[in-house]
């Protein structure tokens, strides 16, 4: 194996190690461990293990994330369209004001 090949194999491992250290530093590993221990220690296994984890971390329950993302994108698109309309109307308003000034007598 050449040294170039060896370097390419160590890069993914290096990235994994950096990510692992990041997770430990930010206490993510500890938080996940606690929730998994809590799940393990439940006298009766919850029917919805993911729901249990979400509840532990304070996540919303019963919300369709994909639908929320879709709605968010639709609202962003609508907002952009409304901004375009405002820009067009502002331009038209300015043009009409300028035309009106031509017909008004100076006071």
Please name the defining characteristics of this protein.
single chain, about 110 residues, mainly alpha, 2 domains, elongated, disordered N terminus
Distance between the termini: 91 Å
pLDDT < 50 runs, ≥5 residues: 1-7
Percentage beta strand: under 5%
Round the Cα radius of gyration to an integer and report it.
29 Å
- Overall pLDDT confidence: 87
Global structural class: mainly alpha
Spell out the helices and strands N to C: HHHH
Number of domains: 2
What form results from the Cα inertia axes? elongated
Report the helical percentage: over 70%
**Total DSSP helices:** 4
* Number of E strands: 0
Main beta sheet strand tally, sense and closure: none
Polypeptide structure, described:
By secondary structure, the chain is an all-alpha fold. The chain has 2 domains: 1-62, no CATH class; 64-107. The chain is elongated. The longest helix is centred in the last third of the chain and has 39 residues, at 65-103. The chain starts with a helix and ends with a helix. It has 4 helices and no strands. The chain is 79% helix and 0% strand.
Offer a quick outline of the entry.
The chain is an all-alpha fold and 107 residues long. It is built from 4 helices and no strands. The longest helix is centred in the last third of the chain and has 39 residues, at 65-103.
Please describe the topology of this protein.
Blueprint: H1 3-25, H2 28-41, H3 49-57, H4 65-103
């Amino acid at each position: 194996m050449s040294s170039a090949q060896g370097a390419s194999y160590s890069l993914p491992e290096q990235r994994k190690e950096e990510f692992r250290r990041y997770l430990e530093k930010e206490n993510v590993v500890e938080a996940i461990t606690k929730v998994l221990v809590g799940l393990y220690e439940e006298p009766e296994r919850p029917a919805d293990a993911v729901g249990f984890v979400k509840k532990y971390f304070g996540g919303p329950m019963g919300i369709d994330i994909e639908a929320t993302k879709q709605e968010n994108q639709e609202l962003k698109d609508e907002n952009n369209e409304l901004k375009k309309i405002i820009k067009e109307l502002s331009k038209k308003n300015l043009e009409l004001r300028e035309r009106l000034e031509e017909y008004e007598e100076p006071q």
